[in-house]
Amino acid sequence: MAGKPFCCLGCQTVFSLLQENGLGQFYDLNVAPGTRMTGAATAAKWVFLDDPAVRAQLLDFADDRQARVTLQLPAIHCVACVWLLENLFRLHPGVGQSLVNFSRREAAITFAPDQIKLSELAALLAAIGYEPQFTLGATEKVQPSPLGKRMWLQIGLAGFAFGNIMIMSLPFYLGLDSFNGPWFKSLAGWLGLALALPVVMYSAADFWRAAWVSVRQRVLTLEVPIALGLAAIYAASVFEVWSQHGPGYCDTLCALIFFLLCGRGFQRKTYDRLAFDRDYKEFFPLAVMRKTAAGEESVAISRINTGDCLRLRHGELLPADARLIGGTACIDYSFVTGESEPVKCPIGERLYAGGRQVGGVIEVETLKPVAQSYLATLWNHEAFRKPRDHELGSLTNRYSRYFTKLVVGVALGAAGFWWFRQPDMAMKAFISVLIIACPCALALAAPLTHGTAQRLLARRNIFLKNALVVERLAKVDTVVLDKTGTLTCADARGVEFIPVTHLVTDSAGRASARADILAGPDKPPTARADARPGQLPPAEARWIYSLACSSTHPNSLRVAKFLGGEPLPVNGFKETPGMGIEGEIEGHLLRLGSGSWITTAVRGDACPPNNSSNSGSTVAVAIDGAWRGEFRLENSLRPEVEQLITQLGNRFALALLSGDNERAAALFRKMFGDHAILKFNQSPADKLNFIRDLQQRGRRVMMVGDGLNDAGALKQAEVGVAVVEQIGAFSPASDVILDAAELPQLARVLQFSRQAARIVRLGFVISAAYNLVGVSIAAAGWLSPIVCAILMPLSSATVVAFTCGATVWLGRGLKAGRGLVDGTQRRRRQLSALELQALPKEVA
Amino acid sequence: MNVIIILILASLGVALLFLAGFIWAVRSGQYEDTVTPSIRVLAEDAKPNNSETNTKPK
Fold it and tell me: Which residue from A498, A732, A833, B39 has the least number of CB within 10 angstroms?
């Protein structure tokens, strides 16, 4: 093990564990595999998993000898992860087969419950760096419906029948029927009917059902003419074969069903890794520790009663509204409000569900059950119950209403015309019109355009919940933006270092210094009293960087990003939750943390003030017991936000909603212009109501937000766009998940979706043109299987080629994103140099 | 001309075999996850000498 650098004891443990068990290959599969250890895992943490009720909820299957569980392992990210997890049986004799699903970040693990308890299994996984994630939402998860399998079978069956019938029909297309004689025609006909029967019964089952539903509800959706056309084709084929007129139209029938199903499958693209329907349950823990007379016990969230005394440790989430009764509470409400700075609370203070404790152990008394707590009530709002994906208003269905009436009208007209001229032709003309007018091309135009647009956007890290969102995006006329976390972000740009010399002489100049930072990177702060950003000596900067790298606290990460450089080894690293970090680098003792904590270690007269500022956050630095100064961390505007606002302002009505106070109002007023509505100090419910008011005034609103505090507004809006720093990380329920780096593209995305809507309309025009030709032929009574077999697939193919081609062509204007999300390459590029250096390396 | 009937039935029989294979593949869940297998193949099987020297004694 000598000569191999490890970032921490945890990584070293994993390395020796793997070497002992012959899994050393793990380190050959990737340059720096593994995930960053986020603290020693304790077996006690997982005890709640052995609670029979919790266990029963989690296990997929269990008997005396073996059990299977599917665990969420968000740390899975590369080849080595898959390999290691699937070789888990070598680490413990009680583990059987394990199967990883990479795109869902899941592993299905079979184990022997008498040899390894579920809690031990979780601890084992956590020990090798794949800490399972147990959330309240996961236990309520319904098993994935067999819709996927069913769809594959339907498409496969239709494709099989289509190919085989077409081969048998080839002689008739080429006019060889006279050569083969009538017996061959009838054989081909009967075989075709036999092959088409399961296609009609099974593959097309959804069309019959949907058509029946829409007839019963007296709404003409596109399924009605499709079902009518399919029924007409099969009926005509049976009649022709029965009466020995010809081989029927079964080839066309199966081809149509095959194409229609492919179009539907194409539209049904989902992203397994992304959850668009998450609610608060998704990140509530399964169980918490309850204080009892005998000590403490693990209790499932659903069984918490009012008046229970709960114990929360560092990093644990408060599941219900409660009152603080013991300990020093420092609650991080970033999930709820988007504000990243933890709030210190005195004993007796009311704490709200969704807050996360930072620091030591606290004891709280619950005031409300989980389902009635502050966070949960937001989800009980009607906006969360309204069905979103109704297709009734969609473009296709609006057209299909006219289409169906027109087709039936023409068919009846043709039948009427022939009835007086040549009665035996009437039936043929009627059926022929229904056959040829089957709106296959019409049905394909929208799914293919939207599906292609969805895929193109996904390549640019803009993920749509489903293809229908494209159509809703095209109708948007008002854009509402959230401020904190959406337009502004916490990154290295908002950081500055104030040396001790400036801090001691002045403390009044701080407020003005801070207000300027929000103005963004382009406008350097000007009006500044005495607190000027200073330079650290390069050696000291490197020490601080090395220390900051060792912690995963967001403030440490920001300081590390701000300083940059090469890390040095840190000895005696210690993290005091809620206070700071310390360690020895090149013989110097460094401390980074809150001002009051630093004071305890500082000699001499210059001490940081105990009352750290109330806006933004500061990180004080002490080297060898001498206070050196502090880092100030502020939110800064994301790059190119101003251009985005200008672009959006040209076309849409704009509004800004912020949970923050009004200190940056002037800046945003200038950016948004005089007509925009700017609202500050907005609660989650205020945001939701604001969107609803806009909608009641007839606006179609797109809401762009990030945190759970925007969840209500995102859900209420026609299109909710969640901005996330990292794809796959938590995002509230929304229609679009957007990588924060792609935010400047938002105006372009809206333009693209409007273009997509235009492409769909053009697709309708093309399909209408084909129908005009086809229906004329049919009404004239000239329809033959060969006309059908050429015209119908040709019209579908033209529409497919046009819509896909045009969408791709228009989408080329979208700037290339950072590559595909799935796949190992992307993830490896995402790992910052900082993380990579901290990982264990195998030097072969 | 009877030979064509035999040919049609034979080809149909072969096609049905493939259809049965497809149905089996779908039902056994091979279409559920199309990403992981593509990653799994990248990891080679354990090197023989490595696994022998390092396997934990039972």
Answer: A833
